[in-house]
Amino acid sequence: MPPLPAGLPPSAPGTTRLFIGNMVCPQCNRVVQRRLEEVGLQVQQVALGAADVVASAGQDLPLDAVRVALSDAGFALVEDPARQLVEQTKTLVLELVRYTDPADLAHNFSYYLSQRLQRDYHYLSQLFSAHEGLTLEKYIIRQKVEWAKELLSYQDATVADVAQQLGYSSAAYLTNQFKQVTGMSPSEFQRLGPGSAGRRSLDDLI
After folding, report:
1. Residue 151, domain extent
2. Residue 170, C-beta contacts closer than 8 angstroms, at least 6 positions apart
3. pTM for the full predicted model
4. What is the dihedral sign for C-alpha 42, 60, 71, 141?
5. At 97, is the pLDDT very low, low, confident or very high (cuts 50, 70, 90)?
6. Which is the most buried residue in 43, 51, 60, 73, by most CB within 10 A?
7. Residues 6+ away with beta carbon under 8 Å from 93
8. Which residues are CB-neighbours of 78 under 8 A, at least 6 positions away?
9. Residue 195 carries which DSSP code?
10. Does 43 map to a domain?
11. Measured distance CA(59)–CA(82) in Å, rounded
12. Would you say residue 116 lies in a domain?
């Protein structure tokens, strides 16, 4: 049995699970559902990275139409099994960083991913690097820094608050990783302000 995508229980009988790339937020779920319904599919459930659908009675899934509909909205139908596993890994990292209780973020990412995806972490890491051109460890750090940037956009957010929310053991640890990715400290980034051209160029790094 293949590993389940993050956020979805097992498929119901008679449904087909579609794996979808580039889903990064809950709003994506609504857009994907609407796009799939527009090509005549009944959407049974949808979550980051996947959707379970049913075609009209007696008809095959209109995969060509699905590819076009998703692509037009900035998503992608993921059909290669190895690529599906990479996308599931990315989805789990995203869920861990953005939608998990801070206390749970202190747990080992490698153990969590291995357990959820039913694969050896070394295998997941090698597969991820081969497909993404980036190590899984660096991808996790970049996702944490990207979320830190969003949290720092709130005027009353402190570096210590953001570090705690992201499961860092200290503000200094977050600062070190933040500087590795962006070239400046969280405080320096925060002082740029949301309208700064320099800040916008940093946003493009992720």
Report:
1. 139-206
2. 163
3. 0.79
4. positive
5. confident
6. 51
7. 109, 113, 136, 139, 140, 143
8. 19, 20, 21, 84, 87
9. T
10. yes
11. 28
12. no
The amino acid sitting at 89 is T
What pLDDT, on a 0 to 100 scale, did the predictor assign at position 201? 44
Q: Which parts of 62-184 are beta strand (E)?
A: 76-78
CATH number of the domain at 28, please.
3.30.70.100
> Looking at the predicted structure, is the pLDDT value of residue 189 above 80?
yes
Inter-CA distances, 173 with 83, 170, 178, 179, 183, Å: 32, 5, 9, 10, 15
Say if residue 194's pLDDT is above 80.
no
Q: Tell me which residue has tokens 């992608």.
A: 76
Checking DSSP bridges between strand 42-47 and strand 16-21, what pairing results, if any? unpaired
The domain total for the chain is 2
- Which CATH number belongs to the domain containing residue 146 in this structure? 1.10.10.60
Write the CB contacts of 164 (distance below 8 Å, at least 6 apart in sequence): 102
Is 122 part of any domain? no
